[in-house]
Amino acid sequence: MGSAAINRVIPVDFSDVQGLAAFGYAKLAQARFLLLAIRDAAAARAWIAAAPVSNSEYRNPPPATALQLTFTPAGLRALGVPEAAMAGFSTEFLSGMAGEESRSRRLGDIGNNDPRRWSWGGPKYDISLVAMFYAKQDLDSWIAANQNGPWSQAFEVAATLDTSDMGGREPFGFVDGISQPEFDWKRERAIPGTTVSYANKVALGELLLGYPDEYGKYTDRPLLDAASDTENDLSPAEDQPSRKDLGRNGSYLVLRQLDQDVRGFWQYLNREASADPDARYRLGACMVGRNLDGEPLIPAQNDNNTFTYDADPEGTQCPFGAHIRRANPRNADLFGHPGGLIHQTASRLGIPRPGLHDDLIASTRFHRVLRRGREYGAKVSPEDALQPASAGDSPCGLHFVCLCANIGRQFEFVQNAWLMRTKFNGLTGESDPLLGNRQTEGDSPTDDFSIPRENRVARRLRGVPQFITVRGGAYLFLPSLRALRYLAHLGNGGNSR
Ligand code: HEM
Average pLDDT, whole number, for the chain? Predict the structure, then answer.
């Protein structure tokens, strides 16, 4: 990692950043992700050169279609990225989501989630890139319009991930996409290391490569000799201006196909609630940390998202194990606790404040991800889900998508230390109530869910079934538009390899 060495702040060139970093494309309700294997590198480069990839510039009216391109290491190599440059990518990306058993174990990808059972993305699948198409309407025409020229020679479609519009709710029926980190696009925050102040605003280097992150450091990314960028496609690295930055304005994209057993979820809750509808919804809300309409269990100021868990140290308002309390504990930061120098330094290093149930909760600022997922399959309402499965049921779930600059410290940390880990925030014997794989750890169960109660012993659900199963997944690189031009110029007489 380089350290922040710049004196002047270079404004972000929004036209160079793929649009997903700035927009969720909520109005483009139709989406399909094509998983492609490169069959002919020259044809693939020619197609990429002309592809109308959408950027992060604000446009009014917003565009009616969008296209995003993301690459696996195999795809970048197939296009001709030199090995010296490949070595600059993160080890998680290079190894792959399913590349090592220890990684699979940490991500909870064991038992039914084992990559050997995945329909795509496991070790034996050949994927070079994922083309993500979005449209307000006529998605088929938008995709067909892009499958032109060199497309058929360039690619073989290895898998197609369809999505469906569930009106802003995930398949269990809860409003999703409420809480997102806000990134410091204007680069207004003081260089970390001088002062630390908590806000939902996160350093841009947590989202994009090539900018200082929450530690004030530039995340490792591929930097090239200027001479190898023969077409002068890339920007100089901000921290090492003599080198060209293949990562700048790019990000990593995590994609996981997560099947959801909607009937299993609501029928289990119904049993535990003795068929009382209010108690059933209440249990569901305890598992998520919000009710179906998105209202948090902790009263929020003004909106549904301005709250911390400081006022609920016993977890009696929102269980410690609720999905949103695990996924973003919102504490161990300086919000409301200005503290002295030692306190600030400890917080920057991720050392938790004493006196909280925070054995594994490091400072949340270092572990934020930008979620951009899309649902798939047919919607079943929480009420209909109480009926037995019908022959017409098709799999449904979430194509979980998130962006981050450091896969290990952001996505993997959240997934492993907070969601999957049984020892979290003073809990034992349970992992995330939605995502847990319910596999035992040695002799210890992982399928409990505890709900603390005021002046009473906590209610403890046991034998919670597996509701979510991983069907595929990949770590991808979302290059800047300049980096896409660099890729298109590789090979035949273009950038030297
Ligand atoms: C099918 C799988 C999943 C479902 C059904 C689901 C559902 C939800 C719901 C209903 C919310 C509340 C809405 C909101 O606050 O925006 C939420 C929030 C969140 N989820 Fe998930 N989620 C899933 C997978 C994941 C995964 C795999 C991760 C990360 C590894 C994750 C991380 C988060 C985060 C960070 C939040 C926001 C927490 C906050 O800031 O308060 N989720 N999820």
Answer: 90
Domain co-membership, 326 together with 418:
yes
Ligand 1 proximity of 170 Cβ (cutoff 6 Å)? yes
- Best CA proximity match to 436, nearest among 419, 453, 450, 452: 419
Residue 187 has pLDDT above 60, yes or no: yes
The mean pLDDT of 359-376, rounded to a whole number, is 83
User: For 95-144, how does the pLDDT look when each residue is reduced to its tens digit (9 = 90+)?
Assistant: 999 999 999 999 999 999 999 999 999 877 789 999 999 999 999 999 99
Give the global pTM.
0.93
Position in ligand 1 atom list of the atom nearest CA 178: 16
Which of 92, 176, 411, 424 is the pocket-test mutation for ligand 1 (most atoms within 8 Å of CB)? 176
Same domain, 465 and 477: no
CA of 323 to the centre of ligand 1 (A): 7
Asked if residue 398 has its Cβ within 6 Å of ligand 1, the reply is yes
- Note the pLDDT tens digit of each residue in 151-163: 999 999 999 999 9
Residue recorded with tokens 């120098």: 341
Residue 396 counted as domain residue: no
Strands 201-202 and 182-183: parallel
pLDDT number for residue 423: 87
Number of domains making up the chain: 2
Question: For residue 494, what pLDDT is reported?
Answer: 52
Name residues whose C-beta falls within 8 Å of residue 171's C-beta, 6 or more positions apart in sequence: 260, 262, 375, 377, 379, 380, 396, 397, 398
Residue 307 structural domain: 257-362+410-470
From the alpha carbon of 414, which atom of ligand 1 is closest? 30
**Same structural domain for residues 236 and 201?**
yes
- At 162 the three-state DSSP class reads strand
Q: For ligand 1, is residue 324 a contact (CB within 6 Å)?
A: yes
Please check whether residues 62 and 152 belong to one and the same domain.
yes
CA of 250 to the centre of ligand 1 (A): 23
> Would you place residue 471 in the very low, low, confident or very high pLDDT band (cuts 50, 70, 90)?
very high
Q: Please, what is the angle between helix 262-272 and helix 277-288, to 10°?
A: 120
pLDDT of residue 198 exceeding 80: no
374 is a domain residue? no
- Ligand 1 within 6 A of CB of 414: yes
Q: How far is CA 217 from CA 211, 332, 350, 482, in A?
A: 8, 21, 15, 23
Q: Are residues 280 and 245 in the same domain?
A: no
Question: Which residue's entry shows tokens 């907070």?
Answer: 418
